[in-house]
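Dear Dr. L.,

I hope this message finds you well. Following up on our conversation about the binding site, I have prepared a predicted three-dimensional model of the protein together with 4'-deoxy-4'-aminopyridoxal-5'-phosphate. For your records, I am including the exact sequence and ligand specification that went into the calculation, followed by the C-alpha cells. Please feel free to forward this to your student if that is useful.
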Amino acid sequence: MHSAADVTQLIGNTPLLHLRQVSEQTGCTILGKAEFLNPGGSIKDRTALGIIRAAEQAGELRPGGRIVEGTAGNTGIGFTLLANALGYSSTVVMPITQSKEKIDTLELLGADLHLVPATSYADPNHYVHTAERLAADYAKKEPNGAIWARQFDNPANMAMHRDTTGEEIWRQCEGKIDGFVCAAGTGGTLAGVSTALKAHNKNIQIGIADPSGASLAAYFRSGKLQASEGNSIMEGIGINHVTGNIALAQVDHAFNISDAEALPYLFALLQYEGLCLGGSSAINIAGAVRLAEELGPGHTIVTILCDYGNRYQSKLFNPVFLNNKNLPTPGWMTI
Ligand code: PMP
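The resulting structure of the complex is given below.
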C-alpha cells in the first residue's frame, strides 16, 4: 500500500506546470511550480516544516513546545497545521491589513491569532517584533518552552528551499533550465532555489520580481536599498530591508513589477487556463516574462505559483476593490 504517514509527507514534490499563454507570448518555455498544492495551500508549508525540523534537531523546540511567528498569513497557516500534526502549539502574529480570507482560514484552523496594526519595520509594534516579544513571554511561562521561528533571518528557511524546492526544480527540468524568477517576502525561496540551481550550473540566470514600493530590485542592481515608486496590493512579498535570507540569494536580474503589469496575467490564467492564483504568483509570472524577454526565445524559465486565488477573493477578484485602487479589471468581471 502507498500512503503518506502524516501531513508532513504531503508537503513538497509539487509538479511543474506549463504556462501556455506566457510561453507563446515570449517563445520561451515558462513553467510554474504548483506550490498551491501543499496541504496548507502555499509554498510556506515548506518553510514551516524546515524551521520546525531544524529547531527540533538543535534541541530548541521540545515536545509539546510552542512555535511563535510573525507572518503575512501563509507561514502561520503552515505552522498551525504542523503544530497540530506534530504535537506542538502555535501562535501567529499578523498585520490586520492581510486578506479576510487568510484571517478566516487561521480562525478556522484554531490558531492562537494576534492581529496587529500594519506599521513600518522600524516600529517596535511591527508584527515581527511583536512575535519576538510574545515568544519571549511564552518561553517563560509555557511548561515546554517556546521558540520564535524568525523566518526572515532563520537560515533553515532557505535551507529547506535549497534542499527541496530548488533540487526538485533541477530534477524536474532534467537540468534543462536557463532561468528562475520569484518575488521575495522573507527571501527564503529566492535564496534557497538560487543556491541549489547555481550549484548545479552557475550560468542559470536568477531574477527577482519586486512589487512596487519594495526596495530589493534597487538593492540587487546597485547595492542600495531604495523603495520603488507606488505600492502594491500583493500580500506576502515586497520588503524594504535585507533579511538574513535575502543576504544569501544569488541574483543576476532585478525587475520592478507593478500590480497593473501583473494582474492581467492573473485574470488571463483564470479565464483561459483554468488556474486561479494569488497575487504573488502574478508578480512572479510577470517577472518570468521579463526574464524571457531578456534571454530571448527558446529558453526555459521556472517561477513559483505560491498560493491559490481564493485566499484573496475579496481583493484580487473584487472589481469594487480593484476600481478603488485604479487597477485593471477584465471584461468578464462585473460589479
Ligand atoms: N507569496 C506568498 C503568497 C507568500 O505568503 C510568501 C511568503 N510571505 C511569498 C510569496 C514569499 O516567499 P518567501 O518568504 O520565501 O520570500
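In brief: Residues 1 and 9 are 15 Å apart (CA to CA).

With kind regards,
A. P.
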